[in-house]
């Protein structure tokens, strides 16, 4: 497996992965996402901002993750152990349901962590 930045040409596949994952989550009473969020516009913006990565296995996109340094405002005034460190935040990690239970999510996160360490990020949240 490898990761790369998502490209606009990937958008339809990415939307299908999210749609399928949402259906599986709904079937299992997991209300994490729905038909309203994440929207196609949000996913497209993630790509255009160059913040979205895709996991590739056997030439197939099997996972999607957004990594940036954006966080919800309620976290701003937290009592953080590492206030002055360079950090990255993971958003919208999604694994194609066909590939679930194969450690795809775990491998995606390991590759993102390795990538960020090379870019000298100290924290991943």
Describe the protein's architecture and organization.
This protein has 125 residues and is an alpha+beta fold. The chain has a single domain, classed as 3-Layer(aba) Sandwich (Aminopeptidase). 33% of the residues lie in helices and 24% in strands. It contains three helices and five strands; from the N terminus they run E-H-H-E-E-E-H-E. The chain has helices at residues 11-27, 40-48, 104-118; strands at 2-5, 52-57, 60-68, 87-95, 123-124. A five-stranded mixed β-sheet has the order 1-2-3-4-5. Strand 2 (52-57) and strand 3 form a beta hairpin. The radius of gyration is 15 Å and the shape is globular. The mean pLDDT is 88.
CATH class: Alpha Beta
Q: Major sheet: size, sense and barrel closure?
A: 5 strands, mixed
The radius of gyration over CA amounts to: 15 Å
The CATH superfamily is identified as Gcn5-related N-acetyltransferase (GNAT)
Low-confidence stretches: none
Task: Identify the CATH architecture.
Answer: 3-Layer(aba) Sandwich
Number of domains: 1
- How many helices in DSSP terms? 3
H/E series, N to C?
EHHEEEHE
Question: What is the straight-line distance between the termini?
Answer: 23 Å
Structural class, from helix and strand content?
Answer: alpha+beta
Number of E-state strands: 5
Structural shape? globular
Mean pLDDT: 88
Helix content: 25-40%
Strand content: 15-25%
Strand order of the largest sheet: 1-2-3-4-5
- Per CATH, what is the topology? Aminopeptidase
Please render the helix and strand layout as text.
Blueprint: E1 2-5, H1 11-27, H2 40-48, E2 52-57, E3 60-68, E4 87-95, H3 104-118, E5 123-124
Parallel strand pairs: 4-5
Antiparallel strand pairs: 1-2, 2-3, 3-4
């Amino acid at each position: 497996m490898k990761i790369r930045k998502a490209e606009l040409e990937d958008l339809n596949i990415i939307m299908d992965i999210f749609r399928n994952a949402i259906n599986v989550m709904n079937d299992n009473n997991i209300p994490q996402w729905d038909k309203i969020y994440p929207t196609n516009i949000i996913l497209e913006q993630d790509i255009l901002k160059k913040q979205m990565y895709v996991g590739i296995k056997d030439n197939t996109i099997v996972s999607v993750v957004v990594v940036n340094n954006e966080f919800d405002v309620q976290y701003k005034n937290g009592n953080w152990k590492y206030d002055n460190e360079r950090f990255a935040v993971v958003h919208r990690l999604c694994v194609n349901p066909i590939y679930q239970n194969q450690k795809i999510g775990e491998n995606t996160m390991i590759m993102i962590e390795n990538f960020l360490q090379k870019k000298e990020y100290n924290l991943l949240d």
